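Repro:
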Amino acid sequence: MKILLIIFTFQLCSANIPLVVNTWNFINATQKAWEILNISENDNALDALTLGCKVCQDEQCDNTVGYGGSPDENGETTLDALIFDGDTMDMGAVGGLRSVKNAIAVARYVLEHSEHSFLVGNLASAFAEKFGFPNESLQTNFSLNLWEEWKANNCQPNFWKNVFPDPKNHCGPYTESNILADNTLTNTVPTKFNSRNHDTIGMIVISQSGHIVAGTSTNGATYKIPGRVGDSPIPGAGAYADSNYGAAAATGDGDIMMRFLPSFLAVEQLRLGASPEKAAKISLSRIIDKYPTFFGGIIVADKKGNIGAYCNGMEQFPFSVASADYPNSVIKYVNCANVK
C-alpha cells in the first residue's frame, strides 16, 4: 500500500462523512475500519471501530497497544479500552484487563451485554471469559526483556514519589518517606511519555447516517505501578462522542490528561460552535496552561466530518484519516504548540 504523507502547519483537513480518523500513524487500523464501514449500507460504525482498533492490538502498534508491551513493575502487561456511542450516550470500558488480548471487543461486550459502564481487573477478565474470550498470557519475550533491563537499571524510570528509598536511584519495595510531600504545582512533568510510550490508539468513526462512535485501546504506561489505569478508558478523557456534535480522542500522558477531560471539553466546544481546530486547541491549552511540558495530542471531528488536531511535547503529531477523499488511508501531521 502506498502511504501518502501530508503535513499541516495551520489549516487542517476537512472530509465528508463517512469518516475514520485515529491518533498516530496506525494506518492499517484506519484502513480496516474504513473497509468495514463501507462493507454494507447498514450502519456499522461500532463494527468498524471495534475491528479497526483490534488491528492495532494484533499488530502491537508501537508496543503501546495490545499484548506484549508496556510491562508494569511486576513484568505484567494489562490492557485498557473504551467504546463510547454518540447516538445512545452509552459506553463500555475495561481497565487493568488481565489475560485477555482483545480488550476493545471486551469493552464492546460491556457496552452491549451489561447495564454497567466500566469493569476492571480480574473480574473484567472473568466477564470476558463467560463470553468465550480465551485466557492467554499477555507477556512476550519482548515485554519480559524490557522488564529485565528495567530492573537491571535500578528500576528507572518509575512513577513513585515521596517514598524511601529514593525512587530516582533505587528499586523498591518502597515505604512512606518521612519527608513531607510537596503538593505545590511544579509546571513541569517528568518526560516518561514520548512517541514510544504514549498510552493509546484513539479512533473516531462517523457512518454515512451520522452515527458517531469513539474508542481507545492501550496497554498503558511502561513500568507503571501495578493497578494503574490511565486516561484511555475514562469517558471524556481518552475519548468522547455525541452524534449531535462530533467526537474527540486524546493520547499521551494519561495521568495528566485524565484530570482535565480533554475529549469531553473538545466536544463541548463543538456544541458551543467552535471549529474542530479551535476545539482541539482550547482543550489541550487548558492542560498546557498548568503543565507546559506535558506530552499529548488530541484529534477532533465534528458531525460533518471536519477534522482538527492539537498537540504538545513533540515536534509533530501524526494522525490517520480515511474518507471518500482518502479511500486509501493517509497520514497527516500537525505541528505542536511547543514548536515555535
